[in-house]
# Entry
Amino acid sequence: MLLRNKTFRWTGLILAILLVQWVQLAPERIEQFYARGAYLLIGKLLRRLTGWLPFSVGDLLYILAILWLVFLLVRTVMIVRNGQINRPYIKRALMSGIFISACIYLIFNLLWGMNYERTGVASQLGLAERTPSDTALLRLTTGLRDRLISIRPKQLSSGPKDRGHYPLQGYRKLASRLPIPDPEPLSVKASMFGFIGNYLGYSGYFNPFTGEAQVNTAIPQFMIPFVTAHEMAHQLGYAREDEASFIGHLAATASADACTQYSSYLNMFLYAHRELRQVDSTAASMIWESVTPAVRADIREYRLFLQRYDTVIGEWVDAFYDRYLRWNDQPEGTRTYSRVVIWLVAWQEKYGTV
# Structure
């Protein structure tokens, strides 16, 4: 009976994973039935379950998982020292590890991961996905600079409500004129790991198992609104980093809050300026010199912040995340973030605005 139950569990798990893999072969099928169908219900349910809690359920799960792994490591060391390890034990441990990993993989895809294979903003918003010309990059960077200068508020923080509140306003406006999902109920939390995130090199993250958007509130305050909008885009099913940044930018700049708008324009300017510098360093230098001292001071503050927390651990985390993105059909790894300029240029060419 025990053997039969194990065989049934393994067979069911393998068939479920194969079914998920088959569904992911057709992006149009994912877009229609999952991203714009099942996931909208899943996302709302998860946010409703976790959004009302004042702490991050996902962070608690991560902490428990780390403690469990430490317990297993200590237990294994003790077994080895006592000479109790044998071939049956190794086989059981290995099979259990594979089974648990496969279950996590399946749950991850069902709850959110299949969004990586959707057709995305190109088809949803009717945007052309092509490498921007040098002229288009220059026009984009110049436009972002102008908006950045004109919108910079004297007070760079909107106060305690800026985490989630103002980006949500922008998403509501965006959903009224574009086929963007309803972002409510809200589930945005401050990361429980605090300034540790600075050393690990992250500003925010999305937990696909709880539907929560976590924000590292120890980063410069003027970066928080855009990070929040970016993570909220992940909540809505925009899994790819460039698309999440683009949708987050549209939402943040649709907000009535100047700090939220400035935060997004600042991030987009940094992406566009970096790309322009690679193809036309002279034009990039001229644009940089034309930026107001106040904006340049903000950018220097952010760069000094990154340098202050640039550690080997952060490089390891970055390398791991780079590999994670490549595993999930983003072959450029962490460089995928910079692809947001493709969508910004396409939007500018279609609507004439940034």
Remarks:
- The two ends are 64 Å apart (CA to CA).
- Strands lie at 188-190, 204-207, 212-215.
